[in-house]
Amino acid sequence: MPGTRRRARHPFRQRRPSSSSRKPPLPFTTALLVFLGVLLALLAVLRVPLNLGVIPFSLDGQLGLLLVIMSIQFLAMGETPVGQFRRS
Questions:
Q1: Per the confidence metrics, is the pTM higher than 0.85?
Q2: Three-state SS string across 21-45, please?
Q3: Are 40 and 68 in contact (CB under 8 A)?
Q4: For 60-74, what is each residue's pLDDT tens digit?
């Protein structure tokens, strides 16, 4: 067809990496530790109304929350407060 030309690709032209091959800004372990730090900071902020008696307090609930947070960390990363757990 007259008037239609295909553009030739430059052989050394670098392609832009696809969105799936780009590295995330934070590694997974760091992002999870930041998230867990935010949860623990929220728990620390909630301690003030607990001490004033504004909201009810349950020691078992607090320990359960800490257990859930540590189990998420253990399952997601294989890291525990006492060190790394190697999977078989």
A1: no
A2: CCCCCCCHHHHHHHHHHHHHHHHHH
A3: no
A4: 887 888 888 788 877
